């Protein structure tokens, strides 16, 4: 069983993924962290040294290798991962458990304001413009995100409620 979590930055993919993996006794993989450990460099360094196109090719190759492996896991994707190359088709082909953790741009802006300095993509965006930036980005990415098998509308859910929604869909799909 490969369980894939996707969504915009700040949607809780890693937080939920770790708990879900523990509950299901599966390894947890954060794709960005996985790439950093394999490359022995931070993502921002790879971007700076080689550019986004190089990074997206690297990301695709690691994603493909993980998905084609025999190993079961919970995988948290980077926010942009589904949107490049044929990554979304690859993801859907290798797992019936693909979850989009959907938040409104307003809620994401609230969640991300305090961690902007750790997020290079939004580090230089004023708080007043953050929600509009996120709204535009999500609009561009929704075509990919909405292909997930399950959409968890998370604005009003606690972590436990989001996990319950995921678990309920996994159980329902496996029966």
From TrEMBL:
Cofactor note: Binds 1 Mg(2+) ion per subunit.
Entry keyword set: Amino-acid biosynthesis, Aromatic amino acid biosynthesis, ATP-binding, Cytoplasm, Kinase, Magnesium, Metal-binding, Nucleotide-binding, Transferase
Binding annotation for Mg(2+): 14
Cofactor requirement: Mg(2+)
Pathway entry: Metabolic intermediate biosynthesis; chorismate biosynthesis; chorismate from D-erythrose 4-phosphate and phosphoenolpyruvate: step 5/7
A single Gene Ontology CC term: cytosol
Highest taxon of the lineage: Bacteria
Compartments where located: Cytoplasm
GO biological process, one term: aromatic amino acid family biosynthetic process
Entries under SUPFAM superfamilies matching the protein: P-loop containing nucleoside triphosphate hydrolases
Gene for this chain: aroK
Oligomer and partners: Monomer.
InterPro entries in alphabetical order: P-loop_NTPase (IPR027417), Shikimate/glucono_kinase (IPR031322), Shikimate_kinase/TSH1 (IPR000623)
Residues reported to bind substrate: 32, 56, 79, 141
UniProt-annotated binding residues for ATP: 10-15, 119
An MF annotation (GO) of this entry: ATP binding
Gene3D superfamilies: P-loop containing nucleotide triphosphate hydrolases
Top EC class of this enzyme: transferase
EC number: 2.7.1.71
Name of the protein this chain belongs to: Shikimate kinase
Family membership noted in the UniProt record: Belongs to the shikimate kinase family.
Role noted for this protein: Catalyzes the specific phosphorylation of the 3-hydroxyl group of shikimic acid using ATP as a cosubstrate.
Organism expressing this protein natively: Capnocytophaga canis
Subcellular location, principal: cytoplasm
Tagged with keyword Amino-acid biosynthesis: yes
Coiled coil: none
